[in-house]
UniProtKB/TrEMBL annotation:
Keywords: Signal, Transferase
Keyword flag Repeat: no
Protein known as: Glutamyl-tRNA(Gln) amidotransferase subunit A
Keyword set includes Signal: yes
InterPro entries: Amidase (IPR000120), Amidase_dom (IPR023631), AS_sf (IPR036928)
Domain Amidase: from-to ranges: 53-472
GO molecular function, one term: transferase activity
Signal peptide residues on this chain, from the entry's feature table: 1-21
């Protein structure tokens, strides 16, 4: 059994210094630095109105997003109207929970009714004003307020060329505006890191939630495939596409996933399993817990940046120092094999989902998409069938590892975020990673900060058993304060 302490919204309400400051009109309070739990406690007790919180984020967007470029479209009027309704509902005693009044942004890949969706493409998606993605509907049902659509690679693809000739300029890294923010959920990672949104939703097909989280020093969760509905999303690879939350801290991801998930009859890939219920508990220690750790000295990780290696080794030491038993292990297959299996699956499924639309105006798409189409035409039905069969085997092989331990610790990206002026650095950041295995197998995976190399965030990754996001979140909430340390929180360069 876990020895735990449970966090509660009420623990922050009432006599909190922040609550007092807000009630007395302290304008020096930076509302954009609140966590979901902190903001929710103040909203629930009446010290903070949802409109105040949304206005604070809109002001931050006005101040920094010309440089950060995290949003493609800011839904200013819609967000303020929704926040005003939240305030009325709460005043009437209809408080819905931790997400009620919390602003969120979403990758511009999810249809959002009257709020425009572009996929960061020049293609005409047609009139979709009657279609709202399930993940948006679910978050809004919990009371969250959509403040806009965020930067992405075209069709949520993550190759470097896809970013260089698109309608919306590539989002910058909040820690260094001359650097890449990861992809393809570029805006969500940059926006949470640069505090233009409290919460963001990205889409992960081969690491596209975790890569921007790693680049931007924030936390990102890829849920188990089938946990969250893809209804209303522009499809990249239907057997791997997975919406996931990005937040400054791990606890925020738990609140978000509880609202986002659930079976959806409109999406046959969703699974009828017990809904994820977030219980904000932190283990008191890790005594008796077994943690698998890959051998980062193996040839698979030969290119790991020394600072990244040191960050991961520090995480392993923290686990040991707090009672965890480290179980040396490795992924069942080489990283290269996961990539090899993934390519034909992605090629064929992207083709089937998007070919007709792209061919309606091929000159409108970016060069990267055109290059991708040429690779698709080289993939055979046999290639696809063999890859799908091997992917299912890989799922079983990885799940078997969790008979021996609870979570698996491994690298995320091999490098810190690259400079825009050096395309090879961006390519290395995107391609030399350990993100693909969990996407091929469908397992949940959590990308976390692992400290800093100068001003640039380091990262690591944990993979958990199928449909056990809870164990990842518990470990993440335990490790987060140990990794971040005590004292003032680091502030990204974009915030001054």
């Amino acid at each position: 059994m876990w020895g735990v302490r449970r966090l509660a919204l009420a623990a922050l309400a009432g006599s909190s210094a922040l609550g007092v400051a807000l009630r007395t009109g302290d304008n020096a309070t930076d509302l954009t630095l609140l966590s979901i739990r902190e903001a929710a406690a103040l909203i629930q007790e009446g010290s903070l109105r949802a409109t105040q919180l949304v206005e604070a984020y809109l002001a931050r967007i006005d101040t920094v997003d010309e440089r950060l470029r995290s949003f493609i479209y800011v839904a200013r009027d819609e967000a303020l109207a929704a926040a005003a309704q939240v305030d009325k509902d709460i005043a009437a005693g209809q408080y819905r929970g931790a997400l009620h009044g919390i602003p969120f942004g979403i990758k511009d890949l999810y249809f959002s009714g009257a709020i425009p969706t572009t996929g960061n493409s020049r293609l005409d998606w047609g009139n979709r004003t009657d279609q709202v993605a399930a993940v948006i509907t679910n978050l809004e049902a919990a009371g969250a307020v959509l403040i806009g659509k965020m930067d992405t690679g075209e069709f949520a693809s993550g190759t470097v060329k896809l970013y260089m000739d698109l309608p919306h300029d590539l989002a910058a890294n909040p820690w260094d505006l001359d650097r890449f923010a990861g992809g393809s959920s570029t805006g969500p990672g940059a926006g949470v890191g640069g505090r233009t949104t409290l919460l963001a939703v990205g889409g992960d097909t081969g690491g596209s939630v975790r890569l921007p989280s790693a680049a931007c020093g924030v936390q990102g969760l890829k849920p188990t495939f089938g946990r969250v509905s893809n209804y209303g999303a522009i499809s990249n690879t239907w057997s791997r596409d997975c919406a996931g939350p990005i937040g400054w801290n791990v606890e925020d991801l738990g609140y978000a996933l509880e609202a986002m998930g659930g079976y959806d009859v409109r999406d046959s890939t969703t699974v009828k399993t017990a809904p994820f219920k977030f219980d904000p508990i932190i283990p008191q220690d890790l005594s008796g817990r077994r943690v698998g750790v890959v051998n980062i000295s193996s040839t698979d990780y030969a290119g790991l940046q020394p600072a990244m290696r040191a960050g991961i080794e520090n995480v392993i030491s923290l686990l040991q120092d707090n009672g965890a038993e480290i179980v040396p292990t490795n992924l069942p297959s080489k990283l290269a094999e996961y990539n090899t299996v993934g390519s034909p699956i992605s090629n064929v499924e992207f083709h089937v989902s998007n070919w007709d639309l792209i061919m309606s105006d091929p000159a409108a798409v970016g060069q990267g998409t055109r290059d991708r189409l040429s690779r698709i035409l080289e993939t055979t039905a046999v290639d696809y069938g063999e890859a799908r069969k091997r992917a299912l085997e890989m799922t079983s092989e990885l799940e078997e590892l969790f008979r021996d331990f609870e979570v698996l610790v491994l690298p995320g990206t091999f490098y810190t975020a690259g400079l825009f002026s050096k395309p090879k650095e961006i390519s290395d950041f995107m391609l030399k990673t350990a993100m693909v295995p969990a996407s091929i197998t469908g397992h949940p995976a959590l990308s976390m900060r692992a400290g800093f190399d100068g001003e640039l965030p380091l990262n690591f990754q944990m993979i958990g058993p199928l449909f056990d996001e809870a164990v990842l979140i518990r470990y993440g909430m335990f490790l987060e304060p140990l990794i971040d340390g005590v004292g003032p929180r680091r502030v990204p360069k974009v915030l001054g």
